[in-house]
Write a structure and sequence with these properties.
Layout lengths: L1 E5 L3 H14 L4 E5 L2 H11 L3 E5 L7 H11 L4 E6 L3 H9 L4 E5 L3 H17 L8 E4 L2 E4 L4 E4 L2 E3 L3 H12 L4 E3 H8 L8 H14 L8 E4 L3 E4 L4
Parallel strand pairs: 1-2, 1-3, 3-4, 4-5
Antiparallel strand pairs: 6-7, 7-8, 8-9, 10-12, 11-12
Helix pairs in contact: 2-3, 6-8
The structure holds calcium ion (CA).
């Protein structure tokens, strides 16, 4: 497995590479301190996953991500600075798979990389699959029916749309903006109260209280996780 780290801070680079060497020796780490070279390495090295810093000397990590997404679906974890909530939102909207906040614990970073890789491997379910099962929840996409604990859950079309989008993106944060634009269209972008109300109703119908499947990611959006 190959990891590309795009990061200009030599200290972080050192810590991350030592950490992989010790804990995950199969990983080949390639790195770049600039955005431009990072993009080039995505093409020439075909990494399995990218860890991407937002603050780079030649261009922002957002631009790097945007350019990568023109030609590659490779999973990307962005490194953001604590407190910069908007950076996370922006990164996720541009197609990042996850984020880690600096200063980070290297074990946390490793865990995130593993989680994203597992998710990517599992998500062969994306297009064709007509049925989704997760714990007590069963969704039949063809029939548009939902069952929980073998009982039919009656959802409104909007509730179904939200659940469908969440499940299709299981394991990753779906931003509020994305939910609102895909469910209601652009005109409802500002109306987060409306979204919250629907999420609340959906949780109630799915008996997901306190939430264990449909999690709130504060200031960002929501994440569907499979119940353990
Ligand atoms: Ca930096």
């Amino acid at each position: 497995m190959k990891v590309l780290l795009v990061e200009d801070d030599p200290q972080i680079l050192e810590v991350v590479s030592v950490c992989f060497k010790l804990r995950w020796p199969d990983v080949k780490l390639v790195f770049s301190a600039s955005g431009e070279k990072g993009i080039e390495l995505v093409e020439t090295e075909s990494p399995d996953i990218i860890i991407l810093d937002i603050g780079l000397p030649d261009m922002s990590g957002f631009e790097v991500l945007e350019q990568i997404r023109f030609f590659s679906d490779v999973p990307v974890i962005i490194l953001t600075v604590r407190g910069e909530e908007m950076d996370k939102v922006r990164g996720l909207e541009l197609g990042a798979d996850d984020y880690v906040t600096k200063p980070f614990n290297h074990m946390e970073l490793l865990a995130r990389v593993k989680a994203v890789m597992n998710r990517t491997r599992m998500s062969e379910f994306k297009g064709g699959e007509s049925r989704f099962t997760s714990g007590r929840l069963v969704i039949d996409f063809a029939a548009r029916t939902v069952a929980s604990n073998d009982e039919v859950v009656k959802l409104t079309p909007i509730e179904y749309k939200i659940l469908h989008l969440m499940v299709r993106n299981a394991g990753r944060v779906v931003t509020q903006r994305r939910l609102m634009s895909e469910v209601w269209g652009e005109s409802y972008l500002e109306n987060t109260d409306r979204l919250r109300t629907y999420i609340r109703r959906l949780r109630k119908k799915l008996k997901d209280n306190p939430p264990q499947m449909l999690l709130t990611e504060h200031g960002l959006g929501y994440k569907f996780v499979s119940p353990v």
